[in-house]
Specification:
Structural class: alpha/beta
Strand order of the largest sheet: 4-5-9-10-11-12
Mean pLDDT: 93
Strand content: 15-25%
CATH class of one domain: Alpha Beta
Largest sheet: 6 strands, parallel
CATH superfamily of one domain: Aldolase class I
CATH topology of one domain: TIM Barrel
Low-confidence stretches: 1-32
Oligomer: single chain
Number of helices: 18
Helix content: 25-40%
CATH architecture of one domain: Alpha-Beta Barrel
């Protein structure tokens, strides 16, 4: 949600701006020999309120604090006054773009997706709802998605806040016209916030909106189903409701795709960005904005990643940090060759912890995951909790950006399959299994790769795990069969393959058929023909549930001895993974309180490590150092080892040669470190 807006600061003429160091290139070109990717891959973001008489000051301050990338906030679409007449705001956008470009900067501008606010609506003749009550989203009972001051902190007393149906023809025509006008200013990108169905304000969470006449008519046109009478809301066993769920996600995806198309029509080098708070969890299904689908149709996503109320770094438990890491790795897998921005919050006045330490914790893990950082004050889009710390961190990132942001290529990974359709229809069961499988691999420090329907056919790792992947369509079945016939090994857990891609129960399970699984109730495995392990009692789910009880206390103490999750992990390693006889190229010996990612960057083998040992929410933001971490590389990886600690300098590390391996010992890891061979 847009919970970090600047309380509508200067919402008519003002803007929040981020500016970068002098470096300018068309967004459609490569950056330079030193920056081989587009500028969007290397951003270090923060925001500032803009008045035209402050532009020089903003540029100077941004340059001094190593900010790279420009965000401007004047929201033509989300303020009814400028929706009716955007002239003045368009002038401001053009002026900001020109001023930024003159000193070598990039700029992108904020607009709302489906929300529109009329200021002081009670005392003006025209508001969106007064003029167009039929444009507004509605519950199935007819209640309009119209709210007043206090519903959310950015809605002032007397304001009218409405959420528009994306199927209103006249509204959509005007909206896209504005998008083209904005793109024509020369701005480098359009940043679309809150493209959601209204299901996130109190009382609307289970509405499955919208049931306005335009949306209902479009659904009827596409499916032949009457949404007013033929759905069992919230019942995923109802085929018609599943069609409604699919339709809502498709609607938002198509809306964002159309925005991107209109941007490119007039400014081919400009980018389209969606800001989304739901990640991979059920919230994505509820609001209809699925980041997996969105990455396929726009240039990038900025993640205000929250789930179940888990937000600020200062409030995260070690278990939350693990969840956060898996979420970010998932975003990177969805993005493919596109960047991933994180609009995340470090500290919001909480007592007992240092804002500077929380900033370091947040940014260090984002870098380990390969995502871009956005510095803010509290829970808004601009400012900083510690400007000196921002300057230090952003300056350090600038020096080492290629290490963190150049493409990471898998080497010899175990794959974990993310099934968007299973998440849509069986969210709780699938997600606990998916997170658990990821955690099992990460805690054993095995190289992993998240595989999706878009990347399944190209996966070449030795093993692929299907974490209770219940919904599998015919194309996926064909790809899985091809993978198995080519020597790939499958871990099939839970009720994987029981449903087709629409959520309908299959009469016979095609996964069981081609693997030769005869008794679905009994664990089985085979190394003859397709090599597989079938685990009807999903070990991933059991592991994740156990971590939820044990991991944070153990991590805060820095001691995993005697914990059930350790025995579960050992059992998984010895009875499931080891019988596959895979021989990882890189092996890491470290506690489960570190996460690691192994990948090839610029042709060199890298290991990215983050430490969560010792952290306690609202109490302790400094880690217990992890000591003497051993990493074994193949001799072919290089002859010299280097490590880069977070906020430190590149160091040479001794290399011990033994047989066909190179042994590197990392003496101390505080927050995070990167190790590589040359």
């Amino acid at each position: 949600m847009i919970s970090r807006r600047e309380f509508l600061q200067a919402q008519m003429a003002g803007m929040a701006v981020i500016l970068c160091e002098p470096f300018r290139l068309s967004a459609g070109q490569s950056a330079s020999p030193s920056r081989p990717l587009l500028w969007t891959h290397y951003v270090r973001i923060s925001g500032n309120s803009l008045r035209l008489n402050r532009v020089d000051q903003i540029i100077r301050e941004a340059t001094e604090t190593h900010v790279f990338g420009i965000e401007t906030d004047n929201d033509i679409e989300g303020r009814y006054e400028s929706f009716l007449d955007p002239t003045e705001k368009l002038k401001a956008i053009k002026a900001v773009a020109e001023k930024a470009h003159a000193v070598g900067n990039y700029a992108f501008v904020y607009v709302a997706g489906l929300e529109c606010i009329t200021a002081n609506a009670a005392n003006v003749t025209h508001s969106l709802f007064k003029d167009h009550p039929d444009w507004v989203q509605r519950k199935i009972t007819g209640e309009p998605a119209m709210f007043g001051g206090g519903t959310a902190f950015w809605i002032r007393k007397g304001d009218e806040d409405v959420w528009v149906s994306p199927y209103v023809p006249e509204w959509r025509r005007i909206y896209m016209e504005h998008i083209r006008q904005i793109a024509a200013t020369g701005i480098d990108g359009i940043y679309v916030d809150i493209p959601y169905w209204m299901t996130h304000f109190t009382g609307w969470e289970k509405s499955w909106a919208s049931f306005d006449k335009y949306t209902v008519a479009e659904f009827k046109k596409r499916t032949g189903i009457n949404a007013m009478t033929d759905l069992k809301l919230g019942d995923f066993s109802d085929a018609n409701f599943r069609r409604w769920v699919d339709f809502r996600i498709t609607t938002i995806t198509e809306f964002m795709k159309e925005i991107g198309h209109n941007v490119k029509l007039v400014n081919p080098d400009a980018v389209t960005i969606a800001e989304i708070y739901p990640g991979i969890e059920f919230e994505a299904v509820r609001v209809g904005s699925d980041v997996y689908q969105l990455y396929d149709v726009i240039d990038l996503v900025a993640h205000e990643y929250e789930w179940s109320g888990v937000g600020n770094a200062s409030k995260k438990t070690p278990f939350d940090w693990l969840h956060f890491m898996i979420g970010m790795y998932s975003f990177r897998a969805f993005a493919g060759e596109k960047p991933t921005w994180m609009l995340s919050y470090s500290w919001d006045g909480e007592k007992g912890v240092s804002p500077a330490e929380e900033m370091q914790n947040l940014f260090s893990v984002q870098l380990v995951a390969g995502t871009n950082c956005w510095d803010v004050h509290g829970h808004v889009m601009s400012g900083s909790n510690d400007i000196a710390m921002r300057k230090k961190i952003f300056g350090w990132i600038e020096q080492h950006e290629l290490t963190f942001y150049n493409p990471r290529t898998p080497i010899y990974p175990i794959g974990v399959y993310f099934s968007p359709r299973t998440r849509d229809y069986f969210a709780e069961d699938f997600l606990s299994s998916y997170f658990g499988f990821m955690a099992l691999l990460m805690h054993s420090h095995r190289e992993f790769q998240i595989v999706t329907p878009r990347t399944l056919a190209d996966f070449r790792g030795p093993v692929l795990a299907l974490p209770d992947t219940r919904c599998v369509n015919d194309v996926e079945i064909e790809a899985l069969e091809s993978y198995a016939r080519s020597g790939g090994k499958l871990i099939v857990s839970g009720r994987s393959g029981q449903y087709d891609g629409t959520g309908r129960v299959r009469q016979s399970n095609p996964l069981h058929h081609f693997l030769g699984i005869r008794n679905p109730a009994q664990k089985s495995s085979s190394a003859a023909g397709p090599w597989y392990a079938y685990l009807p009692e999903c070990p991933g789910r059991t592991y994740w549930q156990t971590l939820g009880k044990e991991f944070s206390p153990a991590a805060s103490r820095g001691d995993a001895a005697g914990r059930t999750f350790q025995s579960l992990r050992y059992d998984f390693d010895t009875t499931v993974i080891e019988p596959f006889h895979i021989h990882p190229q890189v092996q890491i010996v470290a506690s489960p309180f570190l996460t690691s990612q192994t990948a090839r960057v610029d042709g060199k083998t890298h290991v990215f490590l983050a430490n969560f040992k010792g952290l306690e929410p609202l109490k302790k933001a400094t880690q217990i150092p992890e000591k003497n971490v051993e990493i074994f590389f193949p001799r072919s990886a290089g002859s010299r080892a280097f490590l880069l600690p977070f906020l430190g300098e590149i160091q040479n590390v001794p290399v011990e040669r033994s047989g066909g391996q190179l042994r590197v010992v990392v003496p101390v890891i505080d927050k995070g470190v990167v190790v590589w061979l040359e």
